[in-house]
Amino acid sequence: MSSNSFAYNEQSGGGEATELGQEATSTISPSGAFGLFSSDMKKNEDLKQMLESNKDSAKLDAMKRIVGMIAKGKNASELFPAVVKNVASKNIEIKKLVYVYLVRYAEEQQDLALLSISTFQRALKDPNQLIRASALRVLSSIRVPIIVPIMMLAIKEASADLSPYVRKNAAHAIQKLYSLDPEQKEMLIEIIEKLLKDKSTLVAGSVVMAFEEVCPDRIDLIHKNYRKLCNLLVDVEEWGQVVIIHMLTRYARTQFVSPWRQGDVLEDNEKDFYDSDEEQKEKADKRKRPYAMDPDHRLLIRNTKPLLQSRNAAVVMAVAQLYWHIAPKSEAGIISKSLVRLLRSNREVQYIVLQNIATMSIQRKGMFEPYLKSFYVRSTDATMIKILKLEILTNLANEANISTLLREFQTYVKSQDKQFAAATIQTIGRCATSITEVSDTCLNGLVCLLSNRDEIVVAESVVVIKKLLQMQPMQHGEIIKHMAKLLDSITTKLLTQYILNLGKYDQNYDIRDRTRFIRQLIVPNEKSGALSKYAKKIFLAQKPAPLLESPFKDRDHFQLGTLSHTLNTKATGYLELSNWPEVAPDPSVRNVEVIELAKEWTPAGKAKKENPDKKFYSESEEEEDSSESSSDSESESGSESGEDEEDDRSGDSAEDSGESGSEPEAGKGRAATRSRARGRGDSKDVDKEKENSKTSESSSGESSSIEESSSDSESESESESESESRKVTKEKEKKTKQERNPLTKDVSLLDLDDFNLVSTPVALPTPALSPSLIADLEGLNLSATSSVISVSTPVFVPGKTHVLLHRMSGKGLAAHYFFPRQPCIFGDKMVSVQITLNNTTDQKIENIHVGGKKLPMGMQMHVFNPIESLEPAGSITVSMGIDFCDSTQTASFQLCTKDDCFSVNIQPPVGELLLPVAMSEKDFKKEQGMLSGMNETSTTIIAAPQNFASSVILQKIVNVANVGVVPSGQDNIHRFAAKTVHSGSLMLVTVELKEGSTAQLIINTEKTVIGSVLLRELKPVLSQG
């Protein structure tokens, strides 16, 4: 509404039209003395009324117009009291615009802003990240020393915020607080150190800027974050890239040896007069020693190279200066093409880039010689651009291209731009001094210019010729005679008097002073002192010849691309580049310790001590076979888990146990342990599973030897079985760590593809049975059953986390949880949940544990062991197991510390209540046929054809639900299978593609409630693009 002011004039009879008419007249009326920046009282009164209105629409309209006024440069400061009243508005859009206004005027209206400081503090805890960030910006814009403690506390909290945008604004606020109160430096450095560890690309640039402002000398803070910054550089926003590159350039100059040293040493072959033979030998060894670039040095150069193609000129310039200052000279040439590309930008960019190229071209001409024509002057160039291009052309001049350049210069001399023409004549003089072959040609050309009609060209030519003659007076006698002849027609005395009179009345006081001084020397009078007697000695004394050199010669000691380099003087805040160290500092300071994932599972190891009565094996056997019990018994916290493992082991030891005449017991155990769904099948599948188990056992002899020792324990010694089991345990643990599989060592002895969790409750075997008899029973348990269900590894594990406890609610303790989709080590009916606890305070949090539980009927929970303490900014991941009873009911409990208890909830998505199942297409169809009718739900899906690609469907399905993929012989049918964690009921998902852009989604399961919920979740996912 405020964007187009003319729209109001077109409206008839409205208050807004009248208001705009007043605005228009105010800018041209005598009372509006300040033009656009004058304030119309009536208009502002109208805006105040709108801001005090009860309607959010009116307030929003007023704020839009006020922000529009600020954007146009108009003064809206007198509206501050009316605007600040709306800072507590519940409308999020109004609140955003109010904060935009407050950031602009908080520094000017400090007293009024202080009145609302409590509102800003409350806004720091707002659920909306934009409001939290805006409140911090306003708070840091109030430049009053009295609120420094409040700002410090706000920055500390914001630096630990979950939103990277808020943490970014915390880094910005650090600089403001430091400029307001430098005594807070040490506390701010602690926050900077914490933010430097942040992995968000949004924060990186801002925190490095804060580092450069507050503590640029604390290089030690960068060591651990150096490699991370190098790797994040490509993804950081553009202005952050500029800051990081400049900082890393300074860092590299202090931590790595010079890549130019080798070339410099090899070129220095002259023997110093006073050097002894031993010293010469040391130097020779130094020259022979090959240079090896530090890998971190190479990492920086390699990761900045792609940024030469950035669309931002400042980024390209930053990378160019980095290559110039720290890269080997042989590699620095790649920046020339990128810099020449920037010459197509606007004149401001051209000016800075040409200044840097002028400095580079003095030392390394070869870099820019291929692009000589890019520096030819265009008629549309600004004067300063033309002069800089002339400077570069002069630096690039050599014997090969001087003839071409002189022809260019002849054209430039005729330019209508007199300043440019004069600069061209100076350029010709410099070429004459640097290239002796064309000295005479240049001098003759300059002499010809003395007859030019343009007085500026003649004057400049005389000055340049004078300098050239002073440099070589004996070789150019003819030119001196020629210039002397020009004085024949000029009366020297009258000319001198005329020049002195002009100088006497010149506007420049310096020229007037010089004129008075010279007049007393060369035109003595009665008042002249003794100084006039020595005029000849003063003016005709021997002087050194003038030097014609580049004005950019001495700028190379400033870092390229900086303000100091542009101004050729040290600017405030400039950080000098240090010299390369003779010996590189210790590179190990940049090494970062990697925390092992297995460390997260350490609390699980303590569970077996808490529940000694729920173990499957007897204590005597556990002592004998310690290695096996450490991996297997920990996973059996419930009675059902022991039976499941027994059933699973029976598949591996079926052949080794042989015929033992215990078929009735085996049949009885099978009937008790198999669910109705798993009871279906034929003997062919049993044969296939036996063949598979043979293959797996033959491929790993160690595994089979364990099973043999368990079945023939009477004939083989227990010590051999124990040593073998330890070997296999270690190998399996290594394998799972390498694959970064979240499965722990508790199931490391099992083949994960055959890991079978059966959930039907049965009576536990009595402890009176010997281990060998148990093994025999297990071996016979699978002799006549099918392999319809075999739990497989998850196809995909989504990394989505859920907030369990917000740091604000938890008084600094934050908790997040996610579902790793792995078998739960605490019970086969439980869903594995990983909880990450973070301490966002600056104090240690002690005794973190789970307190009271409020669980629905039948739901069970296995909690993590108490955590003694969590250090400031520390983090730890623990595991829990929850039996949700195949429902999406919420598990409520208390997360407690030493001092407080917080009520938290975990609600599982329906897709996390499943375990993936591997089965054949034939078994799938057979099970699907038995789960028809009331056990089947279906719906039609409409989507674009590209959304029905096999890979797209697979990705969408496994992202929502933890299901396994079933092989399909038809391209238009996709099948997925899973089973519920608690009851083991099958969940069969079918996606059948129809003609056109439709498909049918079918779910077959006994758990119709879960099936319908899963159907509702899958339908929108498959329908959307």
Question: If you had to describe this structure to a student in words, what would you say it looks like?
Answer:
With 1025 residues, this protein is of the alpha+beta class. Among the domains are: 163 residues, Alpha Horseshoe (Leucine-rich Repeat Variant), CATH 1.25.10.10; 230 residues, Alpha Horseshoe (Leucine-rich Repeat Variant); 115 residues, Immunoglobulin-like (Sandwich), CATH 2.60.40.1150; 110 residues, 2-Layer Sandwich (TATA-Binding Protein), CATH 3.30.310.10. Helix content is 49%, strand content 9%. The chain has 46 helices and 15 strands. The strands form three sheets. Strands 10, 11, 12, 13, 14 and 15 form a six-stranded antiparallel beta sheet that branches. It has a five-stranded antiparallel beta sheet with strand order 1-2-3-7-5. A hairpin with a 5-residue loop joins β13 and β14. α20 runs antiparallel to α21. The longest helix is centred in the last third of the chain and has 21 residues. It is elongated, with a radius of gyration of 42 Å. The N terminus is likely disordered.
Describe what is shown at a glance.
This protein has 1025 residues and is an alpha+beta fold. The protein has 46 helices and 15 strands. The strands form three sheets. Strands 10, 11, 12, 13, 14 and 15 form a six-stranded antiparallel sheet that branches. The chain has a five-stranded antiparallel sheet with strand order 1-2-3-7-5.
Topology:
Elements: H1 6-10, H2 15-26, H3 41-51, H4 56-71, H5 80-84, H6 92-105, H7 110-115, H8 117-123, H9 129-141, H10 148-159, H11 164-180, H12 185-196, H13 201-214, H14 220-223, H15 226-232, H16 238-255, H17 261-267, H18 277-288, H19 295-304, H20 313-326, H21 335-341, H22 347-363, H23 383-396, H24 402-413, H25 418-434, H26 439-449, H27 455-471, H28 477-485, H29 492-504, H30 509-522, H31 535-539, H32 563-567, H33 602-605, H34 607-610, H35 619-624, H36 626-632, H37 639-652, H38 654-657, H39 663-673, H40 683-699, H41 701-711, H42 718-738, H43 771-781, E1 802-805, E2 813-818, E3 831-839, E4 845-854, E5 860-862, E6 867-870, E7 875-883, E8 891-896, E9 901-906, E10 914-916, H44 921-930, E11 936-942, H45 950-960, E12 964-966, E13 973-980, E14 986-993, E15 998-1005, H46 1008-1023
Antiparallel strand pairs: 1-2, 2-3, 3-7, 4-6, 4-8, 5-7, 8-9, 10-13, 11-15, 12-13, 13-14, 14-15
Helix pairs in contact: 3-4, 4-6, 6-9, 8-9, 9-10, 9-11, 10-11, 10-12, 11-12, 11-13, 12-13, 13-16, 15-19, 16-20, 20-21, 22-23, 23-25, 24-25, 25-26, 25-27, 26-27, 29-30, 36-42, 37-43, 39-43, 41-42, 45-46
